[in-house]
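Hi all, long-time lurker, first post. I run a small reading group and we've been trying to get comfortable going from sequence to structure in the token notation. Rather than ask abstract questions, I figured I'd post a concrete chain and ask someone more experienced to write out its structure so we can walk through it together at our next meeting. Sequence below, copied exactly:
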Amino acid sequence: MPVKRINKKAVNNKSSLKRTAVNKPVPSINPATGKKIGLVPVTDLSKMAEMMKQARKAQSEWSLLSYRQRKEHIRKIRNYILKNPDEIATVISESSGKTRVDAMATEVIPAALSAEWYSQNAEKILKREKLPVASVLFFNKRNVIERYPLRVVGIISPWNYPLSIPFGEVVMGLMAGNAVMLKVSTSTTMVGVEIDKIIKYGDLPDGLFRLLVGPGDRIVDALIENNADKIFFTGSTETGREIMTKASRRLIPVSLELGGKDAMIVLPDADLERASNGAAWAGYQNAGQSCGSVERLYVHDTVYDKMLELLSKKTKALRFGEDRDFNVDIGSMTTGEQWEKVEMQVNDALKKGAKISAVSSRGVKKRGSFYPPILMYDVNHGMDIMKNETFGPVVPVMKFNTIDEAVKLANDSTMGLTASVWTRNIKKGIELARRIEAGVVTINDHLYTHGQPETPWSGWKKSGIGFTHSKLGLLEMTRAKLINWDIIRSRRNMWWFPYDRNVYEKLRLSLKLALPLSVTDYLKGAFNVPFFLIKKMFSSWKT
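-- Answer (accepted) --
Happy to help. Here is the structure in token form:
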């Protein structure tokens, strides 16, 4: 039967980028209580050209600082987080509806860790890189790669992790020498205000960081029209495609972290107690509103019944509701629109034959956009809940018989963000992980690597383009430039004009020297080419 809705939505603060009134201040509503917690003025986009000019001026000053000097500013930002974790967690909880434990574990701590890691490692990662000479033919050449800031980057962030997702990108952008313009979701605007407050403690040049508030489509258009140097977007695949299309008209590069439909595979030898604990946390945490959450659980038929039994007990035991005295596990969903989508997916699955193994009833019966944690079985890939992203606390379970079948099921998706394999045999787990089409695959754990600044986060297939986090994320914040020069000043390269038969023959013999197929080839090249090459370097062009 369809899931009974606990109550009418207290608020319908939809997350679409196009629905905020153009000129009205953005109201912030606590989705767990329906109470207004703030009113934030919309950014006047008619002044975007002037804001961009100011950002470029500030960036020019900022880019002249050494990495160590930038590090001192980022350390001030980090220290503010360390001194005020409770205040920040409370703002996140009230804005998004998630519990304060969730806010602390998945937002505040990762933000502080990212500030520390990028400030410590940016110089090492982005320093000049010397390239080894690849061939004797270029013995006189030297090459280095240098990294330069993009200049002004636009970051469009979502509501599900309103602090930790944009914060890491902001710090990466700043440490790489860029100015940053951050657009936060209108559903969690107060977290954007908190980020602005945190960044101010870094004593940055005026205009280097700017919070943008308002309709997402208008802000994206303004960034593109004013030639932002790159746009970083985290959100739905559909919106990412729209942004990419708009940016392409001006050849503005994009980095897109999009949706996921993440698979968890439980093998026969898995520790089922750990696996069921992991599935419960990674499936229901943040009310299931994580792009890397467990959204498809595949269990080997020999342990299927036991796994379903264990996970059912843990699902029923979960407490959901308003976070008052740290007495709940699951908070509310953040938007009414997302509540409706999850409800539709659950009802679609039930109509097509799915069954509910367990549903938590340990929740509030009044107000708020709460959705009970639900465990489903008898599902199949013909159901929407197994094909499209589910941003809610629902875990559907299927059984499989062979490893090949598990891989086929896991890869049967247009998305490929993350996945996990659960087994006591790590070697077997790694072998299976290599066969799964996803940007991140964890063994005996799920979802947590997003909190590690040193690990890359990137999706395959329709789950994204580019990287966030880690060395690879930092590189996304820069332009690369190759600089090449000669050790010995020469007049000509051996392949320069004028051409004649002798030049052709020596070039042909140079192949034997550079890539000999036999000792004879090498000796022919070594005997003929070096003298000719040096002679060309120092000879004049006679006419």
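A couple of things your group might point at:
Residues 494-538 form one domain.
Residues 100-126 form the longest helix (27 residues).
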